[in-house]
Amino acid sequence: MLDRTIQPLICEPEQLAVPSPECRVMKNGIPLYILNAGDNEVVRIDLLIEGGRWQQNQRLQALFTNRMLREGTRRYSAAAIAEKLDYYGAWLELSSSSEYAYITLYSLNKYLPETLDIFESIVKEPLFPEKELGVIIDSNIQQFLVNGSKVDFLAHRTLINAVYGDTHPCGQLVQKEDYHLINPSVLQSFYDRYYHSGNCSIYLAGKVSEDAIRRIETLFGSEPFGKDFRKPEKRSYVPVTSSEKRIFTERADAMQSAVRMGMLSLDRRHPDYLKVRVLVTLFGGYFGSRLMSNIREDKGYTYGISAGIMPYPDSGLLVVNAETANEFVEPLIKEVYHEIDRLQNDLVPAEELAMVKNYMLGDMCRSYESAFSLADAWIFIHTSGLPDSYVRDAVEAVKTITPVEIRELASRYLCKETLKEIVSGKKMS
């Protein structure tokens, strides 16, 4: 009989085995990464294009080029694409990041020939039709205006602009007028420059058969496609951080204020990054963190508060996020600094650090348990320029970090003087 009054033993994973993908370089030079895992007759195909915000010539160019791929091709209208994908039980995702565009297809194996035909047309022959583009731009403008009334949206925009500056891609804030400057020719020029076989890679994950590999190689690996086969030039940008410590954005009708505190942090390739992740998790990266325990549980200033590092090329952005009643803004900020002081001056109790380690190791185990999550992991590793040993190194960093190291890292990287204070909400008299 199970005695539920006795807590189960906590078992630390001895080793986290993360299978490496098989890499085949296809005839036209595109690398194909294969992760054959799982029992369900489903595959996911990710086609990555090295062309994101870092490469665009004007705001929103990369985003809308990627977004419009499904809105009509030489062979299929937007309605036909949606209807056929729905009929075959497939799902298409389009997304864009700092340096990459992602075209992702989920498909049942038995319908892969049909869904790959649509996928190929989307990748190789989009039309960027003006009518559909106009509808999508109008919809995005309305969403932008709605977001502009939200204090969390305003605070986040203000923070990244204050930290990175107007000349950096992160700090260049989209305005309503930018949407009106997007047209089919702007998107076509970006597509012609970056969407080609010399500038992409493909990840195939799930229950992968040789037939699926052969079809990918036939459609995407046999001949070059695209117009401009130059690799994108690497662009580096220097952040120009504002000298202002506190920046306030007023929303007179706001019931709550959004608080964002942030500063430049480590790039993912920095030797200290993996151990700083443990520090930030302890500080505000999970439900039992210092910020949550103090500011939510003890003081009751907010329903939720978190801290994390947002990764960007060549840098990271350490952010503390919270929303609180207008009268609690100042005491909340004061308690954030108090928790930084504690981390810099006091050793973390062994029991608390053990709990953080177990949380992070468990989270890693969950992150690598399926073929699709494995694909996500390897895409992250490859696009970030990290070594293949990254997962093993991350586990080792979590297991070996000590309270003394936590205190030293807090003193080095949690700098109260450079932490920006962004408040968006109602001005208190």
TrEMBL record:
Segments passing through the bilayer: none
Residues covered by the Peptidase M16 C-terminal domain: 183-358
One function term, GO molecular function aspect: metal ion binding
Lineage: superkingdom: Bacteria
InterPro entries found in the cross-reference section: Metalloenz_LuxS/M16, MPP/UQCRC_Complex, Pept_M16_N, Peptidase_M16_C
Pfam families hit by this protein: Peptidase_M16 (PF00675), Peptidase_M16_C (PF05193)
UniProt domain Peptidase M16 N-terminal: residue ranges: 40-135
PANTHER family membership: METALLOPROTEASE (PTHR11851), PROCESSING PROTEASE (PTHR11851:SF224)
Protein name per UniProt: Peptidase M16 C-terminal domain-containing protein
Organism whose genome encodes this protein: Bacteroides cellulosilyticus CL02T12C19
